[in-house]
Recover the amino acids of this structure.
């Protein structure tokens, strides 16, 4: 421990602390911009400067030492911070009124905090066109403040490495290689970069207008599904404590927005488990092992680009969102007597990658686009606000039948380890034909990156492992490649924490908030009467009335999917039409 | 499972060109070493003259370094270039003296005649157009260099004749 003085106040902190951490411990607020706990510590923006021995130092990276004296609000400090922010603003389109991050923007907040009312500098502005090529994410480099958080998340945490800084000085721009469009790269659409971007330079593609159109069309029956992790985070958009469970209010809000039927993705999560557990048992007999889950579309895009040779390991089960979509335009209209052509399926997802997933050409097994539009939690909140709904005071509503009935196993899909736990609950009972006494598989719970467990299915030892975050996924895949992975079943979710940390979740999303959302997910599970997917009565009826049996013919048509091998360079690989030597020959021939 | 493979003839074509063998050797020499990227790019550029997308991808695969990082390094250091370099480098001085004396118009004329932007190479591979800071010949402003030759007190009207000189000598040397 070392003791230092900050603004005349003594504080004792661990010796490896930064000045910023010491100030926090002393209850002194130092403004920051590029720094983001657990993600980014580049010391590049200089907003956090403090005076130490007459010199300005960046508090977020400067280490403490014994007897150090730090001043945080001297004239030198204040002027330096101002100049830094004013320079940023002089090259920033001040579009706050119409910006997606209005009122939740760190640059805006900082400008306000530093009481900047005038920008003294004016100069040439850089301009790089917006990139809206991706189904999930929009990049607006003009709003980028070059903090590099997105680069760090995409490389260090996700291991995808799509983004980097190119050029230098005034010309610097954070972008994919060659200024390519995001859709041309190996971007997984995970949206982790969107979660950490302090400004409106990386945002979700806003699809609210499409949904308003459907809702406004009296000929269309608009069906909505809500993903497990949405119910524990949506409240944050309305100022509630992280982790507040708002299932009932969310359902009421959706009805007031005009949705004709409000269903639950937890229902199709249960269905996924029944199909997937049966597939696993088949593969244990004969087939490629380990089998890996497929419910996270960011993960699917990752393996397609980075490890196409391992695609056989993926379960052929579609994700719950897409199973739901396929049934919403086949089983559901058949049951209630509607024309599937007049049904629109909307999903509310914690995820930006779900937008891409819904657009995949494989996802039309009903004969229509199975899921028409995907909204993130942030977009749904925007619609609720636009409609003037007083969310916090809404009465509790209930899901519709039949696709609104679900079990606790469905809801835990929202957190890392949940799909595994749900599958184990079902696999155990299917194999042993005995009731599972203790439903909780605590080894696979929690925020740790990689979690292993061994389960005894009465004689058959099942080795399982769970990874969250694509960087951790890569570690497991490398093990499989080297032949070192002695697992039977692997769960992978692209986002740290699983869907509770999805790229479509409220901003901010950080470790403390993840813990709160996760605790609530398991609370919801515990409060359910039914907690095993195969006990879901609606699923039983679905098989009796419509599907026949798990892995049956209809299941294969509607609930399973192939995958696509892609290049690690994405579509950029295809832009290299011929080797250099050929180009030169062609040029020579022309002369 | 459906596999959409990217069929291309590149491998066969590359096999015939000894420069790819050199590149493979360079990569093999540095692979696994700390800080391999910069020396590999440097030597690759010596072999190919520039670092086009195809070479960047081969280096990315060979060293297992992200393409975005390679592009970042190439665009950061002026020593590297992704563009092919022409036989003659044209340097238009945009230092204050030259600028005041109309270097901007001279540059525009060059762009127009060569049909290229700054830092690009003309279609015939002869000229690469660049702008420079003050080259210390302000008395001759505006100044343009072509290869090792320096031209001073230029107006846009002088440009066609200067370019023609190099194009002619190129024709003669080929004949
Ligand atoms: S990014 Fe922030 S500061 Fe910039 S326009 Fe949007 S809200 Fe305003
Ligand atoms: S969405 Fe994910 S993979 Fe794509 S650039 Fe952002 S962090 Fe990287
Ligand atoms: S896009 Fe956002 S996160 Fe990335 S460098 Fe720019 S401001 Fe930072
Ligand atoms: S917050 Fe410390 S340098 Fe940016
Ligand atoms: S400004 Fe052009 S030579 Fe000095």
């Amino acid at each position: 421990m070392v003791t230092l003085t900050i603004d005349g106040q003594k504080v004792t902190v661990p010796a490896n602390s930064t000045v910023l951490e010491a100030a926090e411990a002393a209850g002194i607020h130092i403004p920051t911009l590029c720094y983001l706990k657990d993600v980014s510590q580049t010391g590049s923006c200089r907003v956090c400067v403090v005076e130490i021995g007459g010199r300005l130092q960046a508090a977020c990276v400067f280490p403490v030492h014994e007897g150090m004296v730090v001043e945080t609000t001297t004239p030198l400090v204040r002027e330096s911070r101002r100049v830094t922010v004013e320079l940023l603003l002089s090259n920033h389109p001040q579009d706050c009124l119409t910006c997606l991050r209005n009122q939740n923007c760190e640059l805006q907040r900082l400008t306000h905090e530093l009481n900047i009312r005038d920008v003294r500098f004016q100069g040439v502005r850089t301009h790089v066109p917006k990139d809206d090529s991706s189904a999930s994410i929009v990049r607006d480099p003009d709003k980028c403040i070059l903090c590099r958080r997105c680069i760090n998340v995409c490389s260090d945490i996700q291991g995808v490495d799509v983004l980097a800084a190119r050029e230098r000085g005034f010309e610097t721009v954070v972008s994919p290689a060659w200024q390519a469009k995001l859709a041309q790269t190996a971007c997984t659409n995970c949206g982790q970069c969107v979660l950490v971007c302090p400004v409106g330079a990386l945002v979700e593609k806003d699809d609210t207008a499409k949904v308003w159109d459907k809702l406004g069309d009296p000929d269309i029956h608009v069906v909505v599904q809500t993903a497990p992790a949405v119910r524990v985070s949506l409240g944050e958009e309305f100022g509630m404590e992280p982790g507040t469970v708002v299932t009932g209010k969310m359902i009421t809000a959706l009805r007031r927005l005009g949705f004709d039927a409000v269903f639950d993705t937890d229902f199709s999560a249960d269905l996924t488990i029944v199909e997937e557990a049966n597939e696993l048992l088949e593969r244990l007999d004969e087939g490629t092992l380990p089998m890996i889950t497929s419910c996270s579309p960011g993960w699917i895009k990752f393996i397609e680009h980075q490890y196409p040779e391992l695609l056989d390991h993926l379960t052929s089960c579609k994700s719950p969102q897409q199973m739901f979509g396929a049934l919403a335009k086949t089983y559901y209209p058949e049951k209630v007597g509607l024309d599937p052509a007049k049904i629109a399926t909307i999903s509310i997802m914690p995820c930006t990658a779900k937008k891409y997933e819904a657009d995949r050409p494989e996802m039309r097994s009903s004969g229509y686009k199975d899921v028409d539009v995907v909204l993130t939690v942030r977009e749904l909140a925007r619609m609720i606000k636009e409609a003037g709904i007083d969310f916090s005071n809404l009465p509790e509503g209930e899901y519709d039948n039949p696709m609104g009935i679900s079990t606790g196993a469905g809801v835990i899909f929202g957190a890392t380890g949940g799909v595994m736990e749900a599958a184990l609950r079902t696999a155990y009972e299917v194999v042993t034909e005995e009731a599972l006494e203790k439903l909780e598989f605590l080894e696979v719970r929690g925020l740790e990156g990689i979690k292993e467990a061994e389960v005894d299915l009465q004689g058959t030892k099942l080795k399982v492992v769970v990874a969250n975050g694509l960087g951790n996924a890569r570690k497991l895949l490398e093990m499989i490649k080297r032949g070192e992975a002695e697992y039977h079943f692997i769960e992978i979710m692209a986002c740290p924490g699983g869907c509770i940390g999805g790229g479509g979740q409220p901003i901010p999303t950080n470790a403390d908030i993840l813990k709160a959302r996760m605790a609530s997910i398991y609370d919801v599970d515990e409060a359910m009467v039914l907690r095993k997917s195969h006990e879901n009565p609606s699923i039983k009826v679905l098989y009796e009335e419509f599907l026949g049996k798990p892995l049956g013919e209809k299941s294969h048509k509607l609930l399973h999917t192939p995958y696509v091998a892609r290049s690690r360079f994405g579509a950029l690989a295809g832009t290299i039409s011929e080797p250099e030597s050929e180009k030169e020959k062609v040029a020579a021939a022309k002369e | 499972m459906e596999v959409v493979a990217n069929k291309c003839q590149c491998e066969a074509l590359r096999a015939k060109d000894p420069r790819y063998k050199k590149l493979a050797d360079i990569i093999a020499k540095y692979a696994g070493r700390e800080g391999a990227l910069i020396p590999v790019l440097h030597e690759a550029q010596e072999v190919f003259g520039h670092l086009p997308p195809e070479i960047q991808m081969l280096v990315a695969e060979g060293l297992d370094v992200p393409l975005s990082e390679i592009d970042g390094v190439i665009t950061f250091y002026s020593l590297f270039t992704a563009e092919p370099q022409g036989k003659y480098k044209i340097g238009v001085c945009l230092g204050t003296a030259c600028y005041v004396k109309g270097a901007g118009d001279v540059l525009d004329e060059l762009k127009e005649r060569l049909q290229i932007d700054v830092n690009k190479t003309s279609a015939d591979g002869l000229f690469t157009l660049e702008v420079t800071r003050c080259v210390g010949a302000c008395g001759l402003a505006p100044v343009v260099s072509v290869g090792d030759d320096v031209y001073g007190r230029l107006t846009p009207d002088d440009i066609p004749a200067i370019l023609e000189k190099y194009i002619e000598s190129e024709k003669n040397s080929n004949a």
